[in-house]
Amino acid sequence: MADGRIPILVGPTAVGKTAVAVALAAHLPVEVVSADSRQIYRHLDIGTAKPSRRERAKVPHHGLDLLDPGHRYNAGRFALEATEWIEQIRARGNLPIVVGGTGLYIRALTDGLFREPSLDPSRRHLLAEFADTLNPADLVRWASRLDPGFAGGGKQRAARAIEVAVLSGYPLTHWQRVAKVAGGVVPWFVRLTLPRQVLHHRILHRAQEMVRRGLIEEVASVLAEGHGAHAPGLDGVGIREAVEYLHGERTRESVADAVSLSSRQYAKRQETWFRHQLHGSVLTLDATRPPELIAVEIAQAWERSRAAPAAD
């Protein structure tokens, strides 16, 4: 398109984004750019609900299996790398479609980046080791003290806020405000939704399937490779519950229910974010229907939009 828009398919965990994206390949020459902060980690296919080999064979996926679980990743790096993937997809004559539920990744990609301050690598390493000794509540407390604008989040976001504030002398929110770099892709948003009861049923079923398929064994294998229980890749919903079992903090029988509960809480946060943070026009679709029917509706709406100007 002349205006450079690309489809961005969002929605809460277990809503069916991957199935819809794969079905869309029957109508448009798509390649998927994953905007999922957990699927970047290798060796955690079950715990992060990655697209299957069959799905990846049908549609090329980018942004999966980038790092080992002991390494950190952030929204800024995602935006830079995703922009490159999008350009490469377009150069092949295909249509990039961003698919995911990590709101910060999508915001970084669509709203542009900020120029990060230069941080000493050796001091970053020492600070990361210190941060790994703190529990999540202490990390968030320190992040809030060092950066009054810290909006909350998990261990990784808190550790990042501490790192920037300590090593640069200014809070992360300061750099995001004063060092912003123009850019970002022009989004054409599609949001999938489900009635809460239906979504909760899907989440429970998926959690039970994850355990049945070997979630606990997968996580045990990663721990056996030498990664600590608090490694960045092991701190996500659906994985930390398996870690807790493997460290004797819960029973095996409780893992699926714990994953389901954490996933429902995460889905609620995602839905709130997508309701209030997406700018421009948003195509909202009922995901209770088969993915093939949803894909038809998206493809038709996309074709209609091609002659229309991008939303402000």
How would you briefly describe this protein structure?
This protein has 2 domains: 5-112 and 185-305, 3-Layer(aba) Sandwich (Rossmann fold), CATH 3.40.50.300; 121-180, no CATH class. Helices cover 50% and strands 12% of the residues. It contains 13 helices and 8 strands.
Give the key terms.
single chain; 312 residues; alpha/beta; Rossmann fold; 2 domains; 6-stranded parallel sheet; 8 strands; 50% helix; 12% strand; globular
Question: Could you explain the architecture of this structure?
Answer:
- With 312 residues, the protein is α/β, with parallel strands linked by helices.
- The chain has helices spanning 17-24, 53-58, 75-91, 103-111, 121-132, 136-146, 155-168, 172-178, 196-213, 215-224, 240-246, 255-277, 291-305; strands at 5-10, 30-34, 61-62, 95-100, 113-114, 180-181, 186-193, 282-286.
- It has 13 helices and eight strands.
- It has a six-stranded parallel beta sheet with strand order 3-2-4-1-7-8, with helices on both faces.
- Helix 9 (196-213) crosses helix 12.
